[in-house]
Amino acid sequence: MNINEAVSFLSDSASKATDAFDIVAGHSRSEGISVFQGKVQNTELAESVGIGIRVFKDNHPGYAHTERLTKEAIAQTLRDAISHCEFTKELRIDLPCPQVLRKLKSSYNSDLVKIELSEMTSLCLDIEKEVFAASKEIENVPYLGAERSESSMIVANSKGVHYEEKSNAISAGIGAVAIRNDVKKMGVYNKGGLDWNAIQAKEIAQKAVEYARELLGASSIVSGHIPVIFSERVAGSIVSMYASSFFAEQVQKGQSRLEGCLGKTIAPHCFTLVNDPFRDDLPGASAFDGEGVATQQVSLVKEGVLKDFLYNLETAARENKQSNGAASRRYSGKVGTSFSNLIVAPGKQNTQDLLKLFPKCLYIVKLEGGSGCSAVSGELSIGAQGFWCENGVVIHPVEGLTLSTNFFDLLQNLMAVGSEYNDHYSSIKVPALAVSDVSVSN
């Protein structure tokens, strides 16, 4: 049976055997190609489909899922979920009733279905040619590929909720290696979205070459406490690594430094952090969450003051609150929490203006690894590359740096937020961040 038939069959069966239930069903498919030295290196097709259910018996939940959409497999899945209720703690939540959801612009472009592998191959070959034509310093292109993906999701429950959404996207990306005086640097650039015609070979090639060559000729600097500008190319990675600190679940478990900080100032006036599911130009847009709750735009930090956390039904119930539509759930997993679109509101100064805030500063454009970063403690220790700047002017590139601070100290030391976002099709949008004091070592 197809996914809609599976949801209908499971709903009918569960309504007769449980006190309450909710269902998540999903289907995803991706098709990609990689190119190396003018030839197709690999093609890949991945597809998954499945259905999961959370049932309630005497207020005890039970989970199960299956990737076999047959009546026998689905019936067994329901039995498995019911049997698990014996071993779980009581969970008193009210599942949502159907309601009129906010209408968002579709994140599905049917024209992308028509794009053939041959067209993606041609694009990649054109990118490769453009890269080598752009600079004689390009030695190699170890990574070059394109991918088309699509997914659909259904959320249904015992109160009559039945919501569906689907999305797709197409992208191309490259890693190009430049060499100068036996020193090599890789520049990586990806372009994606819903518009195939916006993915241009020349633009992708030029960006990759620029990012590869800009860090050649690096020299060292003296270690110490230095002002740092995190470029919009990397600022999103910094903030997203600590995003779970704003989940009610982590706060309730004592795994967030923000416990007890509601209503307190945790950053300067220039910093506002929003969970915005209604930014329908971004891939995280959605009118409902993984539990069928209508999503909300939530200002977590407003002008430096911590205003709220992200809640699902369970974490909201613990505090006698209402979920603000931040539940995440795949058919194969339990309910969690996530941002829809993580947005830091832009400031009034562009990135170039931020470089002029300090007589001397580091401008970081590349991060390396994150094993020294902990969302629980806030500790941040990460490798980086970038530029040494004086009076707003780039003096020379630098490499081999380790940045050490605490994310919550970083917020307190934030001097300004930039006005520009990166151009990636991403659910994380953070402008450049100017921080007055970061420990830097070679």
Low-confidence stretches: none
Strand order of the largest sheet: 3-2-1-4-5-6
The radius of gyration computed from the alpha-carbon positions, rounded to a whole number of angstroms, is 24 Å
**Element order, helices and strands?**
HEEEHHEEEHEHHEEEHEEEHEEEHEEE
Structural domains: how many: 2
Describe the structure.
It is a single chain. The protein is 20% helix and 38% strand. It is an alpha+beta fold and 442 residues long. It folds into two domains: 211 residues, PmbA/TldD superfamily (PmbA/TldD fold), CATH 3.30.2290.10; 225 residues, no CATH class. The strands form four sheets. A six-stranded antiparallel beta sheet has the order 3-2-1-4-5-6. It has a five-stranded mixed beta barrel with strand order 7-14-15-16-19. A five-stranded mixed beta sheet has the order 10-9-8-13-18, covered by helices on one side. A hairpin with a 2-residue loop joins strand 1 and strand 2. Helix 1 crosses helix 2 and helix 3 packs across helix 4. The model has no long low-confidence stretch (mean pLDDT 96).
